[in-house]
Design goal:
The protein is built from three helices and eight strands. The strands form three sheets. The protein has a four-stranded antiparallel beta sheet, covered by helices on one side. It has a two-stranded parallel ribbon with strand order 1-2. The longest helix is centred in the middle third of the chain and has 15 residues.
């Protein structure tokens, strides 16, 4: 449900271009067919709304354990120049903080 194409198409194109970095679908599409499609086209995990932020972070860590070398700092998840700092509650790209709106509660239903 991206503006120009759906995540299935994005993932298919990435995989066809030889890009094999981790893909986690975070979506409101919760039909079994959508979950199967996401994993079939090359997704590593599929999380549906509503979701717990703690669960999403745990799933990201699990995917990275399977696909990336181990990291020294457990609080910071790094993939290329993207960092998720669980302790500071920050996301950075190239060292620059990306402003994110806080969730309304411990889980996200429609706006995360």
């Amino acid at each position: 449900m991206l503006p120009d194409m759906d995540g299935f198409t994005v993932t298919r194109r990435l995989r066809a271009a030889g890009k094999h970095f981790p893909v986690l679908f975070l979506t409101a599409k919760d039909d079994t067919e959508d979950k199967v499609m996401g994993l079939t086209v090359g997704g590593d995990d599929y999380v549906t709304k509503p979701f717990s932020l703690d669960e999403v972070v745990a799933r990201i860590r699990a995917v990275l354990r399977r696909t990336q070398p181990l990291q020294d700092d457990d609080a910071v998840i790094r993939v290329d120049d993207l960092e998720l700092d669980d302790d500071a509650h920050e996301v950075r790209r190239g060292g620059t903080v990306i402003e994110l709106s806080p969730p309304s509660s411990s889980s996200c239903a429609t706006s995360c």
